[in-house]
Q: What sequence folds into this?
């Protein structure tokens, strides 16, 4: 399919993607579930590179939620192996890409080798000037908000902050996404229409785009369609 001309469209600053449908894609193609996750990882790379090429400034993808640990032991183990493989690919394939990579979520729950790869990627891409790619791993927005509240409460206990002085800006400074603008557009694939604990605070005024396409089949053309529809929205941010 021909990609759309985005030059005259209002490009969002920050897009969030809930990459849903890997398991359904695998079942549809009579493949084991890990094959679906591998296909989804390839789509992630493609969309990240394309986002950078069109000048998008921020992209946040939901890779692994705090709830995903509840999946079968075999699937979680396969995902951990895939994460390690994919992180090694990021180190190699993103080397010549102008993309800053940041991980949001509680990375401490992963194995030491995965944590080391995360640190390497963040360090090696820190001085890039293009797309800011945020990968949410072991991320849950409710837990993020609870942790943020605990940090503020501790500051109050230590007399570093008065309760009446707490503002949205102070709250946001404690989030994983501090210094990252609120999300403008959230895309969810595979036909589901819910946030699933993704960027709850940050999506207060986000626009939503849902598609029945399973994540491994999501293309640059479909990404363009989402941006094209976003450009038609009249964003009022609670005003008239």
A:
């Amino acid at each position: 399919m021909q990609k759309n001309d985005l030059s005259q469209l209002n490009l969002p600053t920050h897009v969030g993607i809930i990459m849903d449908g890997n398991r359904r894609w695998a079942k549809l193609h009579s493949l084991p579930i890990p094959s679906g996750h591998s296909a989804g990882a390839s789509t992630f790379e493609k969309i990240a590179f394309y986002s950078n090429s069109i000048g998008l400034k921020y992209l946040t993808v939901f890779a692994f939620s705090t709830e995903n640990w509840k999946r079968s032991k075999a699937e979680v183990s396969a995902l951990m192996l895939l994460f390690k493989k994919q992180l090694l690919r990021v180190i190699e394939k993103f080397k010549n890409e102008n993309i800053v990579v940041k991980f949001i979520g509680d990375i401490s729950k992963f194995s030491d080798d995965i944590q080391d790869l995360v640190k390497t990627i963040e360090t090696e891409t820190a001085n890039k000037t293009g797309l800011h790619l945020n990968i949410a791993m072991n991320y849950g927005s409710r837990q993020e908000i609870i942790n943020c509240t605990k940090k503020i409460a501790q500051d109050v206990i230590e007399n570093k902050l008065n309760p009446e002085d707490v503002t949205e800006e102070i709250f946001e400074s404690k989030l994983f996404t501090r210094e990252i603008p609120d999300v403008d557009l959230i895309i969810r694939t595979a036909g589901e229409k819910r946030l699933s604990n993704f960027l709850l605070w940050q999506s207060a005024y986000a626009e939503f785009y849902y598609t029945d396409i399973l994540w491994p089949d999501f293309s640059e053309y479909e990404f363009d369609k989402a941006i094209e529809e976003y450009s038609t929205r009249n964003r009022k941010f609670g005003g008239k």
